C-alpha cells in the first residue's frame, strides 16, 4: 500500500480532565463536540484562524458523567446525555458558537445515549430503565412516549438516516430492537445466539435494515434486522468493542476497543485494513466526519485525536489477497508526527496556546471525584446480574398468571 493511503493524525486535542466518553462532528465537519466523565462538554473549533490558533468552549452544566453527545443534522443544536438523569440541548448560533445556557430534559433514569431525528424536530434517548424515550426538540422538556422492547439496560439508540420514522436500539439483553415512531411500537427484534452485552450501533448509509453493532464480547456483528439475519461477524479485538462508526460511503467501518486499539475494516472484502495504536488505555469512542475525510478517536487518556482517513484515495486493486480477519497493516504513528493543541496555558511554558473560553452559566465543576472505570465496571456487572434475575422472575410470574387464567 502506498504511504499516502495510510491514516495519519492531523491534530491532538487536550482539555478534558478525565476519560473522553463520546464525541460527534457538527455537519460541516469543522467543529467537534466531546464529553467526559469529568462532567464537562467541550465544543472544539477545528479550523485555525489567521494566528494559527484554534478555539474551544467548555460547557459546565451536567452534575455527573456525560455518556453521549449527538449533533443535529442541520447544525442548529447538539445534545448531551448524562448519568445525572438529564439530557441537555445546546443551541448553536449562526456564527457557529454554542450558547452557554442549555435546555434541560429531566429523565427518570440514567441516560446512556441520545440521537436527533433527520428532520431535527425530535430526538430519542436510551435509558437504564430498559426503555427508549421520544422527545420533541422544539419544546422545552416535551416528553412524547417510551418505547418498550428491551429487558435490560439500553446502551444505544439511533434514527435511520434513510427513513426518519425508524429507530434501532441495543442493550445488555443481547438484542437489537427496531421501532416505528409513527406507531410508537417495536416492529422487529434480533437477539444474538450467544449472550453478549451490545454497547453501540450504527446504521448503514441509505439503509433501513442494515446496521453494525459492537459488543462486550470483543466482537462486531452486522445484521439485516428486518430479515433477522446475521450478515457479517468480526472477532477482531481482544476486549470489549465500545463504539462503531460506518463510513459515509458504506464501504468501511471504524471501531474502538478496551484493548487500546481502533481498527478500520473493509466491509466489501470483509477484513481489517488498519490497526491504530496511539491511545494509552481504553478507546471509548470513534466517529467518521460527515464527508468521511477525517475521523476522531478518544478514550481514557483524556485526549481526542483527529485523523485524516485517506480511505477514499485507497485503490482496491492494490490490496493483497489476504484472508478474512488478517490485518493488512499495523500502523503505530510516531509521537513527533503529532500537531498538539495545548488546552490550558498552565499545561505548558510555550508561547503559542489555544484560545480557551469556559462557558459556565451557573454550575461549577463538581468537587467529588468521579469513580474510576474499574469500580464503575464492577457496579455495572452487579446491576446487570440483578436485572437479569428480575427479568427472569417477571417472565415466571407472567407464565403463572397465564396458567391461572386458563384454569379459571
UniProtKB/TrEMBL annotation:
It comes from the Eukaryota. Signal peptide: none annotated. CDD domains: WD40. SMART domains: WD40. InterPro entries: WD40/YVTN_repeat-like_dom_sf, WD40_repeat_dom_sf, WD40_rpt, WDR55/POC1. Keywords: Repeat, WD repeat. SUPFAM superfamilies: WD40 repeat-like. The keyword Signal does not apply. WD repeats lie at residues 13-54, 59-100, 234-275, 276-308. PANTHER family: POC1 CENTRIOLAR PROTEIN HOMOLOG (PTHR44019:SF8), WD REPEAT-CONTAINING PROTEIN 55 (PTHR44019). This is Uncharacterized protein.
Amino acid at each position: 500500500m502506498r504511504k499516502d493511503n495510510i491514516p495519519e493524525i492531523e491534530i491532538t486535542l487536550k482539555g478534558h480532565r478525565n476519560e473522553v466518553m463520546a464525541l460527534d462532528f457538527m455537519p460541516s465537519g469543522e467543529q467537534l463536540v466531546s464529553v467526559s466523565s469529568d462532567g464537562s462538554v467541550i465544543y472544539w473549533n477545528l479550523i485555525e484562524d489567521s494566528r494559527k490558533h484554534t478555539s474551544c468552549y467548555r460547557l459546565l452544566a451536567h452534575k455527573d458523567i456525560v455518556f453521549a453527545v449527538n449533533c443535529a443534522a442541520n447544525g442548529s443544536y447538539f445534545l448531551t446525555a448524562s448519568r445525572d438523569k438529564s439530557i441537555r440541548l445546546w443551541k448553536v448560533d449562526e456564527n457557529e458558537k454554542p450558547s452557554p445556557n442549555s435546555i434541560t430534559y429531566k429523565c427518570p433514569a440514567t441516560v446512556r445515549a441520545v440521537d436527533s431525528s433527520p428532520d431535527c424536530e425530535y430526538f430519542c434517548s436510551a435509558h437504564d430503565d430498559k426503555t427508549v424515550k421520544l422527545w420533541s426538540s422544539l419544546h422545552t422538556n416535551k416528553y412524547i412516549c417510551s418505547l418498550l422492547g428491551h429487558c435490560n439496560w439500553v446502551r444505544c439508540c439511533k434514527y435511520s438516516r434513510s427513513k426518519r420514522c425508524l429507530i434501532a436500539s441495543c442493550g445488555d439483553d443481547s438484542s437489537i430492537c427496531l421501532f416505528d415512531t409513527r406507531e410508537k411500537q417495536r416492529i422487529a427484534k434480533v437477539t444474538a445466539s450467544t449472550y453478549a452485552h451490545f454497547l453501540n450501533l450504527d446504521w448503514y448509509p441509505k439503509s433501513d435494515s442494515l446496521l453494525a453493532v459492537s459488543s462486550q464480547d470483543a466482537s462486531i456483528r452486522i445484521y439485516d434486522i428486518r430479515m433477522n439475519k446475521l450478515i457479517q461477524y468480526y472477532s477482531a479485538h481482544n476486549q470489549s468493542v465500545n463504539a462503531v462508526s460506518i463510513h459515509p460511503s458504506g464501504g468501511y467501518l471504524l471501531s474502538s476497543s478496551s484493548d487500546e486499539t481502533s481498527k478500520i475494516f473493509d466491509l466489501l472484502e470483509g477484513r481489517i485494513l488498519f490497526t491504530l495504536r496511539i491511545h494509552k488505555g481504553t478507546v471509548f469512542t470513534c466517529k467518521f466526519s460527515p464527508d468521511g475525510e477525517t475521523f476522531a478517536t478518544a478514550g481514557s487518556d483524556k485526549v481526542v485525536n483527529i485523523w485524516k482517513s485517506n480511505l477514499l484515495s485507497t485503490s482496491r486493486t492494490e490490496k493483497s489477497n489476504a484472508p478474512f480477519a488478517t490485518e493488512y497493516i499495523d500502523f503505530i504513528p510516531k509521537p513527533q508526527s503529532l500537531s498538539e493543541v495545548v488546552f490550558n496555558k498552565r499545561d505548558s511554558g510555550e508561547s503559542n496556546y489555544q484560545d480557551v473560553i469556559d462557558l459556565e452559566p451557573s454550575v461549577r465543576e463538581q468537587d467529588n471525584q468521579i469513580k474510576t472505570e474499574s469500580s464503575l465496571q464492577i457496579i455495572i456487572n452487579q446491576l446487570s446480574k440483578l436485572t437479569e434475575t428480575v427479568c427472569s422472575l417477571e417472565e415466571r410470574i407472567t407464565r403463572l398468571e397465564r396458567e391461572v387464567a386458563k384454569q379459571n
